[in-house]
Amino acid sequence: MNALLKIAGALAVATALTAPALAQTTVIAPSGSTAGTYMDYMKTVYDRGTGSELLQIPIATFDKEFELTPMAAESWSQSEDGLTWTFKLRAGLVWSDGEPLTAEDYVFALQRAATSGYDFAWYWDFAGGIKGWKEVTEGTANVATLGLKAVDDLTIEVTTVAPKPYLPSVTSLWYPVPKHKVDELGDDWAVNVESIVSSGPFEIESWEKSNNSVVFTKSDTYTGPWSPVIDRLELDPTLNAPEVGLPAFLAGDSDYSFLNTGQVPVATQRFPDGIRKNAVFATSYISYDLDAAPFNDVNVRRAFYYAVDRAELTSTVLKDIAIPAGSILPPGYPGYSESVVAQATFDPEKAKQFLADAGFPNGEGFPDVEIWYRDEGGYNGAIVPAMAQYLQAEFKEVLGINLNVRPLPGPEWMDGLRGKKNNIFIAPYEYDYLDPSNFYGIFYNGGRHGYFIPEYDELVAKADSEPVWEERVKLYAQAEQVMIDQGLIVPLVHPITIAVISDQLGGDAAAPNKLGFTSLDRLAHYFFTHLTKQ
Fold first, then answer.
1. Helix axis angle, 298-306 relative to 348-357, nearest 10°?
2. CA–CA distance, 463 with 237 (Å, rounded to integer)
3. What b-and-e string marks burial along 421-445, b requiring 16 or more CB atoms within 10 Å of the CB?
4. Cα–Cα–Cα angle for 488, 422, 325, nearest 5°?
5. Which residues pair with 423 in a beta bridge?
6. Which of 14, 41, 169, 496 has a CA 20 to 30 Å removed from the CA of 60?
7. Do 32 and 520 meet the contact criterion of CB atoms below 8 Å apart?
8. Which pTM was predicted?
9. What tens digit of pLDDT does each residue of 298-325 get?
10. How far is CA 295 from CA 95, 173, 180, 196, 288, in A?
């Protein structure tokens, strides 16, 4: 018996020594922006390193059916008065350098965001409604007054100014910051690969700052939900543009590519099983500086609202890679209202009348204006430039005005929007969490655009804290009616992304959800951890 065991053991050792090592699986994908300064989502969102959110574990996130899934938190509960949420973290989570991940790292992340000029701070005001947030970010209160508390290493307590029945969804964008690294290096901890630590399913291997491309590897220390199946992940923003991405895909240099309108028929014919579509919960709309002429006149804004033929725009110019938008809410999104959408008609005569009422009959005397849009890849890269050209021609034909078009890099566009350096923008926005408060919040109390509309703000505030869903929806619809009546935006289109993926990709992430859509990197944590490759 002992001899047999020895022989078997010897054979096993010999087999192990002679068997080839298993090849690493590497997925190469388009993602991110070509510019990024910090690999820290809680330092900067609009100028972050590609995939920085994949390096950290959020409190919760969404799966491909848009079900909210606990991640760092294993549970949460709300107090009887609705004002305090308690999040219980999983035991055993660590940073990639071995330091324990604690509640203090999450609390520190938001305390730092509230006091350091975080470019996404507005999200935590309108969405989180954290007690004291506004006062601290405005510098009128001490950070210690924030409604955030690390009760112990595994317990976080959040107090809000009003009941927030949807707060767990908001935490899908709450990532920890390694306080021990910030104490040692300051913000520079997130600048160099050598000093970056992760708490999520991936670690960073390299970062090419000239184009913001990154290489991630499967984390050896991650013990949370959704551990990756693949070994390496290369995210290359230069592949975002379909004109670059599809040739790379055809050459075997990328595992999937987004498609522009001209590429869809060819790719569909050649890779019929590889086509994936996604109804993005996103809206492209026109926004204004409400304080600057000529858009400080509601009649001008309403003229623009009625001057857009959205059906023609989506069916001819965009060739159905987007659908008409009559509301800030996309179809299927919670709170979507057909009665709101029905008002967004193409009515040239009404548009001309509103412009005449503003003192510009047939466009006479109207100043030349320049519309700014964000130059980017992905689905917006396929939609927005063509849409801007269409609007230029449409407003000339219907209103008799001259509209110039100017693309800008993302940070400059955002700086122009928030700083009111121009008076009209094309503004795309994709949901951050699944609740109507997300979309309506971007116009609430300043929000993303510096809008301060008391009537609107009052309705949204009531809706946000209303515990009865049916009553909430009614209040949000009333708020959107204020947007229509005051011409605050012109909803334009909701994008539909079309991509082609390699037949080597598999797993749950590569399969469409119940609605027939595949979110790809729009749900990055889910997608890249549920993806396999042959």
1. 170
2. 38
3. ebbbbbbbbbbbbbbbbbbbbbbbb
4. 35
5. none
6. 496
7. no
8. 0.75
9. 999 999 999 999 999 999 999 878 999 9
10. 50, 34, 48, 45, 7
